[in-house]
């Protein structure tokens, strides 16, 4: 009898990466199966061929049904144990315990192998795990958390058990109709912007499958979009309105100086809350914007700014330099790289509400102070290019979003044409 035809305890332990005691129990189990089938066995050894068929390749790779699942005799749960080839071409062993039924154990194993093989016959939920693995490292945490929330609450409940390659445009349209019936906690229908965002996320998942995993068609793209951009009134304060508001905030120093920077520099809320003493160069009268603050999952998180264009240096007016110097002098030994505004976005919002009520000016959002700054610069006659550089926008975006605020030259054009025609 060929010695290589059998595996001993050491061989099994080494092959599977398990303890010798576990390997011995496994040999006993496999030999018991062989005896039930009428075969002779040798104590402490197992047929190498049978071991390979049951635990390394299984019936799936031999053209049969599924690989085996095993039952834990101690607690009655089921587990799977098998080997697969990873992306480096290396054989790996996988063990997963704790399934209530054999069916659940086999289903998990089947999905795992399809993920490893990038098989679009996997379930949508399994593919979302691949999508997360591929995309999450590329994105800011706050961006991923926004995507993850939509996927978890608006997409997975409807598609998770569907086979990825079997989802059709009709399925997507039925999902769209369902989304249109949903309402917010206040009982209002979802905004067109939000519906568009939800659909865009579903389409992103399918696009990823098409681009990298061989899916033939994006059914979300074929179904067409949902929602759309809503025309919203742009709110902003005039300089006089802001000065009334600022006067009402004078007795709240941290909030007052925070609002001064927001209005006179046009920076974003997250950019404000990330500022440190090191960002100010009073000799040059400049403010550096190179980071943003977020409160995510109960932790303070500093990220890069919203866009590459957002990295910028802003020239500050003299009076604002003096004000920020005064503010820093109120802080006890401020550290160069520590945030100077230990405020939350909620506190800023509450401060805004207080100031509006106290001053009698109309209530606007924190972000509308940025619109107010742009409006002020337009009134002062600055170009879209110059304004875009200051606030971290492309000039074309400034022109598009604030076109109605720029003084029209159409009448001047018509008058000049009249003069030319008359000449």
What's the helix count? 18
Largest sheet: 3 strands, antiparallel
Q: Termini separation (Å)?
A: 114 Å
Query: What is the succession of H and E elements?
Result: EHHEHEEEHHHHHHHHHEEEEEHHHHHH
Helix content: 40-55%
Spatial strand arrangement across the major sheet: 3-4-5
Structural class, please?
mainly alpha
Estimate the strand proportion.
Answer: 5-15%
Low-confidence segments, given as residue ranges, are: 56-66
Please, could you describe this protein's structure?
The protein is mainly α. Helices cover 52% and strands 10% of the residues. The protein has 18 helices and ten strands. The strands form four sheets. It has a three-stranded antiparallel sheet. A hairpin with a 6-residue loop joins strand 3 and strand 4. Helix 1 crosses helix 2 (20-36), helix 10 packs across helix 14 (345-359) and helix 11 crosses helix 15 (368-379). The model is unreliable at 56-66 (pLDDT under 50).
Write the SSE topology.
Layout: E1 6-7, H1 9-16, H2 20-36, E2 46-47, H3 48-61, E3 70-71, E4 78-85, E5 91-99, H4 102-116, H5 124-135, H6 141-159, H7 169-181, H8 192-213, H9 219-223, H10 239-248, H11 253-265, H12 269-273, E6 280-281, E7 286-289, E8 292-296, E9 299-303, E10 312-315, H13 318-330, H14 345-359, H15 368-379, H16 384-391, H17 395-401, H18 410-422
Antiparallel strand pairs: 1-2, 3-4, 4-5, 6-7, 7-10, 8-9
């Amino acid at each position: 009898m060929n010695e290589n035809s059998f595996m001993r305890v050491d061989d099994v332990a080494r092959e599977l990466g398990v303890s010798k005691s576990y390997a011995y129990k496994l040999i006993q189990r496999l030999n018991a199966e062989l005896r039930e089938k009428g075969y002779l066995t040798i104590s402490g050894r197992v047929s190498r061929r049978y071991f390979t068929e049951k635990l390394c390749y299984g019936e799936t790779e031999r053209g049969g049904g599924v690989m085996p699942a095993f039952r834990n005799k101690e607690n009655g749960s089921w587990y799977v144990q098998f080997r697969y080839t990873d992306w480096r071409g290396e054989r790996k062993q996988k063990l997963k315990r704790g399934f209530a039924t054999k069916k659940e154990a086999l289903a998990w194993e089947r999905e795992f192998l399809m993920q490893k093989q990038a098989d679009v016959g996997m379930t949508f939920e399994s593919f979302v795990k691949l999508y997360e693995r591929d995309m999450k490292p590329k994105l800011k945490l706050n961006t991923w958390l926004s995507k993850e929330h939509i996927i978890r609450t608006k997409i997975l409940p409807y598609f998770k058990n569907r086979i990825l390659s079997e989802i059709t445009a009709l399925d997507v349209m039925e999902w769209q109709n369902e989304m249109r019936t949903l309402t917010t906690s206040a009982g209002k229908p979802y905004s067109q912007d939000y519906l568009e965002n939800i659909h865009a996320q579903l389409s992103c998942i399918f696009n990823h499958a098409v681009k990298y995993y061989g899916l033939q068609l994006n059914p979300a793209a074929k179904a067409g979009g949902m929602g759309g951009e809503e025309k919203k009134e742009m709110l902003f304060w005039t300089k006089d309105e802001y000065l009334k508001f600022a006067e009402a905030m004078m007795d709240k120093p941290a909030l007052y100086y925070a609002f001064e920077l927001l209005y006179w520099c046009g920076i974003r809320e997250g950019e404000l809350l990330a500022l440190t003493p090191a960002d100010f160069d009073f000799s040059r009268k400049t403010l550096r914007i190179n980071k943003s603050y977020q409160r995510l999952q109960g932790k303070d998180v500093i990220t890069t700014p919203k866009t590459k264009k957002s990295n910028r240096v802003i020239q500050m007016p003299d009076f604002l330099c003096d004000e920020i110097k005064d503010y820093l002098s109120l802080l006890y030994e401020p550290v160069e790289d520590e945030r100077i505004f230990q405020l939350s976005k909620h506190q800023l919002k509450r401060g805004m509400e207080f100031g509006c009520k106290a001053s009698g000016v109309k209530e606007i959002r924190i972000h509308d102070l940025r619109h107010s700054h742009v409006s002020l610069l337009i009134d002062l006659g600055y170009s879209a290019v110059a304004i875009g550089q200051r606030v971290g926008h492309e000039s074309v975006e400034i022109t598009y979003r604030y076109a109605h605020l720029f003084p029209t030259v159409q009448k001047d054009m018509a008058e000049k044409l009249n003069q030319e025609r008359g000449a």
